[in-house]
Amino acid sequence: MNDATLTLPAPAKLNRLLHIVGRRPDGYHELQTLFQFLDHGDTLGISCREDGEVHLTPEILGVPMDENLIVRAARLLQADNDCRLGADIHLEKRLPLGGGLGGGSSDAATTLLGLNALWGLGLPLDRLAEIGLCLGADVPVFVRGHAAWGEGIGERLTQVDLDTPWFVVIHPGVMVSTPAVFGAEELTRNTPPITMARALQGGASSWRNDCEATVKVLYPPVAEVIDWLSARAPAMLTGTGACVFARLANESDADRLLAEISGRWQAFKARGLNRSPLHDVLGR
């Protein structure tokens, strides 16, 4: 057992593109998307316990401990490897719940990679990604740690290198229900599939999110942010929202936009990353 405490980032992600190309018999939607990380996110402090218990602090309001993806990830990794060690995990939460930034999935991935190191399990990323998929479709991209073209329900990943502009991300102050969005009758579900090469060739100016129109109807505060931000910079919904991001040419432009937002909504600036900072820390 390693007695060290690891302090690890759990970065946010953006969906730079999100197309819904079909609906499967099991009700899940077939997607095409581009995932990219941000240099902004949650932080986890993880240390070992000898008694096999998993303790998470602090509790997240409205999320029962047994349903928290961090706790579920730790217990799943224990069970998969018949591991008798436990963990104390402290979460410094910065990413909003229901924001479309992948906060819960990123926390789960950081837990899997951190405990894999602390418990000395030595599992390869492929196996950790398989375990992560049991927790959610977005977990594998955080486990693998590189910007990616995603297909299927988002779990079939191909590494890509995207442009790395500065972004300003706004949270409209509402929590979006992903089931409500995917269950909406008006949601576009028949976008013609494209190849990864064609998507990348088109560039950021041609990328869109098929969920955006539906989310704007269901959640007027999101529509207000999209309209306000689009008047100032290229803007798009990430995932099913609620967060909306704008792409800026440089950090100075991001600072000026943040100053204009000040006090109106919760917002932050971040740089796009093709490699997860988690993997830089762990040397994966």
Helix content: 25-40%
- Beta-strand portion reads 25-35%
Uncertain segments are none
| Largest β sheet strand count, sense and barrel closure | 10 strands, mixed
Give me the count of strands. 10
Basic shape: globular
Give the quaternary arrangement of the chains. single chain
First and last CA, distance: 20 Å
Tell me the structural class: alpha+beta
Description:
- This protein has about 280 residues and is of the alpha+beta class.
- It is built from 10 helices and 10 strands.
- The chain has helices at about 70-80, 105-120, 125-135, 140-145, 180-185, 195-200, 210-220, 220-230, 250-260, 275-280, and strands spanning about 5-25, 30-50, 55, 85-90, 150, 155-160, 165-170, 235, 245-250, 265-275.
- Strands 1, 2, 3, 4, 5, 6, 7, 8, 9 and 10 form a 10-stranded mixed beta sheet that branches.
Tags for this entry?
10 helices, alpha+beta, 32% helix, 284 residues, globular, 10 strands, ten-stranded mixed beta sheet
Summarize the structure.
It is built from ten helices and ten strands. By secondary structure, it is an alpha+beta fold. Strands 1, 2, 3, 4, 5, 6, 7, 8, 9 and 10 form a ten-stranded mixed β-sheet that branches.
Write the layout of secondary structure elements.
Layout: E1 5-23, E2 29-49, E3 54-57, H1 69-81, E4 86-92, H2 103-118, H3 125-133, H4 139-144, E5 148-152, E6 156-159, E7 166-171, H5 178-183, H6 196-202, H7 212-218, H8 220-230, E8 235-237, E9 244-248, H9 251-261, E10 266-273, H10 277-282
Parallel strand pairs: 3-4
Antiparallel strand pairs: 1-2, 2-4, 2-5, 2-10, 5-6, 7-9, 7-10, 8-9
Helix pairs in contact: 1-2, 2-3, 7-8
